Each structure stands twice: as C-alpha cells, then as structure tokens.
Amino acid sequence: MGFSANCVPPHAWLANPEQRATEVHYNGIHLCWQRGKDTITQFSGHLIEQFADVADGFIVWYADPGLCICEQCVPYTPVMLDIKQTYEAIAGDRAQVHHCPWWIWHFEDGTHEPLPVTPNIRRDFLSSLPAGDWVPLYDQDPKSIDIARELVLEVLSFAFFLDPEGGNEAHNVLPRTRFGRIEEAVTGARERDLGLLAYRLTPYTQMAQDWLFFRRQLYPGISREQALEQLARFIGVGEQLVEALNLLDQWWEGRGIEALRSAAEIIRPMVAERPEYMTHLAAALEVLLMLAEVGSVNGWQVTDELVAKVQEYMEQTSTFTAFTHEQLWDMARARPFIRQRLEWWMGVLAAEMGGR
Predict the structure, then answer these.
(1) CA angle, corner 191, sides to 186 and 194, nearest 5?
(2) Domain span holding position 97
(3) Is 353 among the domain residues?
C-alpha cells in the first residue's frame, strides 16, 4: 500500500492554510512536514494503523507529489529522514515500510529551479536504508541506482514508459500497445538484474500492454503471441483478439490506416461476447479510428466535423459518460469540452505518427 509522505484530505488542507506545502511542479493537497507533521500523521498514521496487520507492506512516496521547499524544509535531507523514521516507528514490527525517493536526483544536479541544491542527498538517504531492502528508483537516474547497489539494496526500476499522465487524458484513453517497447524494457531490466515497475491509471483501454508487461516478467520464456493468447482466454473471447491487437500494434508502429480499420472490425463483435471487458477497449478504439482517419488526411488537425462525429458517438457508449454527462443538453458547453480533449489526443497522434 503506497501513499504520499505528506498528503492530507481536502478538508485538512483547507482548514490549515498556515501548514500548506510550498511546492514545486505539483500543486496538490499536501502540507509542509515541518509545520504540519501532526496533522499529516493523523491521516497517514491512521492508514498504517488500519492496514499494518493485513497489508504486505507500505511504500512512502517522497518529493513528487508533495514537495515543500519552505525555509524550514531546506535542506531536504533531514526532512526525508524524519519522515522515514516516523512512518517506520508507526508501523513497528507489524509491517515493512519501503521508500520511493522520487525526484531525489533533482536536488543534486541543480537543473530544476527553484529546487535547492542539496549535495549528497542520494547517498545520505539511501544509506539510511538497511542492506537487502528494496527501493523503487527512477529508471533514468542511473547514479541513484549505482549508489543503491553499492549499498546492497535491491533496486526496482520505476519506468514511466507506459505514459500514464503526460498529456492529461491523452496517454490514458487511447488504446496504445507499445509491445516492442515493453519487451525491450523487460529485457533490459533482466540484463541489469533489476525488477521493473510501471504506473497506470486507466486499466481497461490499456489492458493488453499491461498484460504483456507482467507476463513477460513472470515468465521470461513466453513469447508475445503466447502472452496475448493467454489474455484472450482470460477475457473469454476468441483468439482473433490476438490478431486485432497485433494489427493495432502495427498501426502504432507506422503501418497504414487499413491495419487500424481491420483491428476495429475484429474487436466490434467481441463486445457482445464479454461486454464487461471489451466495451471500453472497443469504444476507445472507435474514437482512435475517427481521429486517425481525419488526422492522416488533414495533418492531425481537429475539425468541427470531427468534434460533432465524436460527440455523437460518445453519447452512445458508457465509456465516455464523464465526457458527456450533464453537457449534452447545452451544445455550447459540450462541443468545446470535447474539442479540447480531441486536441490533446490528436497532439499525441501527431507526435507519434506525424513523421511517418
């Protein structure tokens, strides 16, 4: 069970303006640890107390989200160490507490203003962890990984290649495959003797890549085809799903629009077989196809005709209820709302496909 080191519920943030974190990059419901420790631990401490006897353990997430750079939190190393000791003391012998020192390298490289430069924060914090402990680290921070291994820590490479957030919903809703990148990342992690983590917010539309991500780590000898066949059996649909997913992957890799159309044709009838699994994938694929057919012709620009067509489709499916609920009665509100999201998604497609 993971939680941000200094997150509080909205009512606690609103009621304690003098304790609010002075943050960089992420403006969330977080308090300064130095000024709001007692308030923070009312909630995070309660979480540990409630779940310590049943959870496998806890992961405390540092710095992003929830970083504070007020005068009392600089330098940040003592703050991190106090957070660590506090949560370990609350858990006691009932559960392990692990630590994800996210953004820790930014304190040393001095390239992310206005973060205060804090020399040796990597080593000072990682050396506080017991030998043999495991620690999630950013996969593009090789110095932290090297220090952790020198200190005999087990490294979990926290890879963001699954793109959960980068363009608001842009990276969440579109049904992406990234099969080749997943296989490359898993192979690279295995060669470096690293575990591998990823981050996901939207499970249904991305189920295929998540499934491959885990299967290739659990069963190193399994092929892509075998993994996807297992997915089809798990869902309870025919193995035509494998063909559809491979066609979808081929389109993302630069094959023509016909590959995407064929993938959609295969998946449409599968909704009737297993609606609880296939509805969202099929719906997101239909929107992707609409975007691709227009974008590949007019240079990945959102048109009025596309907005109207997508809105009409969204009204017919439960997948996009959040996009259309209470907006449909007022066209003046609905169209700009949907257009903005289409522009996000088209921007992703332009970056991925525009040069091909």
Answers:
(1) 70
(2) 2-158
(3) no
